[in-house]
Amino acid sequence: MMGARVPLTRWQQAAVAVGSAVGAALNPARADLVAALGETTGSYAFHRLLARMKRSPEGQRVLHERPRVTSASVAHAWDLPDGTFGAAYANFMGTRKFSPDDRPPVRFMETDELAYVATRAREVHDFWHVLFNLPTNVMGELALKIVEFQQTALPMCFLSVAGASWRLKPEKRDLLFRHYSPWAISAGHSCSDLICIYYEKYLTEELEEVRRQWKIVPAPPLPERKV
Q1: What is the mean pLDDT of residues 126-138?
Q2: How far is CA 201 from CA 61, 213, 218, in A?
Q3: Looking at the domain assignment, is residue 2 inside a domain?
Q4: What angle do CA 60, 64, 65 make, to 5 degrees?
């Protein structure tokens, strides 16, 4: 969501960034701290995302119309037939009891336009989970953060992976860096410019068709354990 913007000096921005980084490292479940870290460290990246959207006809439409991913705006997804992008999204959200209204508001961006870009990046996160077929456990979130870093260059994505990976057990860390990372780097690099997509216009289309259209490579299955 977009909240009231809070103007910060450079020193204040640095202080919020450091405090958010420490707090998020100690408690990764604090979505508000993760969000603040993304905003206070991502100014350059968000400017680049905005520039890319302005160069894309579809991105221009998103910027002009400023769609929001809210419970009301995607409610029809629950009525769409199996196999569609919207039905897959509804199943993803419903089985986890997630609401698109639960995301923390953007507060620390310099302009309203940049605040919208940051909001859009935050709100389409669950669409990306569906498209790349990634779960919402720690491994799935970290793998998606690698994809996101390839797409957005947001420092928060890199910091999240670097900060959380050391907390994993050795076998899980090995799985992340040997199994998921090569796929995530390749998938994030080769797919369409995801920030420029007007996702709401494609919910009625077949999931596999939009994956093909946007060159999405879903996450590989977990390797079988050796007996």
Answers
A1: 95
A2: 11, 14, 21
A3: no
A4: 120
Question: Residues 80, 204: contact at Cβ < 8 Å?
Answer: yes
Domain residues for the domain of 171 are 10-213
Q: Where are the beta strands (DSSP E) in the chain?
A: none
For residue 164, the surrounding DSSP H or E stretch is: helix 155-165
On average, the pLDDT of the chain sits at: 85
Q: Cα 109 vs. chain centroid, distance in angstroms?
A: 17
Q: Name, in order, each residue with C-beta under 8 angstroms of 13's C-beta and a sequence gap of 6 or more.
A: 40, 108
CB atoms within 10 A of CB 22: 13
DSSP label of 2: B
Task: Give the three-class secondary structure for 200.
Answer: helix
Name which residue leads in pLDDT, 61 or 160.
Answer: 61
Q: Tell me the per-residue pLDDT of 176-208, one tens digit each, with 9 for 90 and over.
A: 999 999 999 999 999 999 999 999 999 999 999
CA nearest neighbour of 141 among 160, 167, 166:
160
Residue type, 37: L
Helix (H) or strand (E) holding 211: helix 207-213
| Residue listed under structure tokens 């620390």 | 108
End-to-end CA distance of the chain: 48
**Single-letter code of the amino acid located at 2:** M
Please report whether residue 64 resides in a domain: yes
**Backbone phi, psi, residue 169, to 5°:** -65, 155
| Domain-embedded: residue 222 | no
Q: Which residues pair with 106 in a beta bridge?
A: 2
The number of distinct structural domains making up the chain is: 1
Is 180 among the domain residues? yes
**pTM for the predicted model, two decimal places:** 0.85
